[in-house]
Design brief:
CATH topology: L-fuculose-1-phosphate Aldolase
Distance between the termini: 41 Å
Shape: globular
Helix content: 40-55%
Biased composition (Polar residues): 1-12
Protein name: Class II aldolase/adducin family protein
Domain Class II aldolase/adducin N-terminal: 39-219
Region (Disordered): 1-31
Family: Belongs to the aldolase class II family.
Number of domains: 1
Oligomer: single chain
Length: 268
């Protein structure tokens, strides 16, 4: 085959990793979609473990079940993020009943995620951990400033949930949290940490990583001297360019390839 024909062939059949940066085709069955979400959910825990987001019994990420929208998959209590596999994930309904799984779950996680999934039918996944930079930034009680291209992803698309009133165990507190989130992608839980929510597990995982990075960046910049935020009109434009769910989905793909190569056992 000539070099020209080889080039044409490569254009017609791009490598698998190139195809990953194209819109995902809808799953053919509930079972296929369920497996996809659970695999990305388990991958998220492994990635969060590598980023140091595990904090004792705290932290939870959920994915709505595609067949039963009033149920979602969540991590079991007291299993380190770095050890979670697909088979460890537990199915819970909005009343807190564990339908699949034999371990307890984080009560605050149930309260938060049940309220979010009830209030936002468009939310497929939600993530909350006690990451160090997220906690540090949350103590400021302010929103992230648009001081970089990356932080613009959250411009006018997150809010501060305050005041801190202890561990979120009351249904009313969960409802207040969901109301504060509104139709946004993220919250800063004052004196607590960060939370992201969205239409895919991939987007939610990427947004959490990006938000923690943005918090870290602003803390460093504030410590160095006065800040010079991006002008509102440019920040708004940049947000439309880098803050989409589709962009977050694509940004997750290299992380997926990385964690699959390093820790394929999470797929069990």
């Amino acid at each position: 085959m000539s070099a020209t024909l080889q080039n044409i062939s490569s254009l017609q059949a791009p490598p698998a990793r190139t195809r990953r940066l194209q819109p995902r085709k809808p799953a053919a069955t509930f079972e296929e979609e369920r497996l996809h979400r659970k695999q990305r959910l388990a991958a998220t825990f492994r990635l969060f473990g590598r980023y140091g987001f595990d904090q004792g019994l705290a932290g939870h990420v959920t994915a709505r079940d595609p067949e039963f929208p009033d149920r979602y998959w969540i991590n079991p209590l007291a299993v380190h993020f770095s050890q979670i596999r697909v088979s460890d994930l537990q199915l819970v309904d909005h009343e807190g009943n564990i339908l699949i799984g034999e371990r307890p779950i984080n009560t605050a996680g149930f309260t938060i995620h049940s309220a979010l999934h009830r209030a936002r039918p468009d939310v497929i996944a939600a993530a909350h951990t006690h990451s160090t930079y997220g906690k540090a930034f949350s103590a400021l009680g302010t929103e992230l400033l648009p001081i970089s291209q990356d932080s613009c992803s959250f411009y006018e698309d997150h809010a501060v949930f305050d005041p801190f009133s202890g561990v979120v165990l009351d249904d009313g507190e969960g409802d207040r949290l969901a109301k504060t989130l509104g139709n946004r992608k993220a919250l800063i839980l004052q004196n607590h940490g960060l939370l992201t929510a969205g239409p895919t597990v991939e987007a939610v995982a990427w947004w959490f990583l990006a938000m923690d990075n943005a918090a870290h960046t602003q803390l460093l910049a504030q410590a160095a001297g006065p800040l010079k935020p991006i002008a509102p009109d440019i920040a708004r434009l940049t947000a439309s360019q880098v803050g989409t769910a589709q962009g977050a989905y694509y940004s997750f793909q290299p992380l997926w390839d990385w964690i699959v190569a390093l820790e394929p056992d999470f797929l069990d």
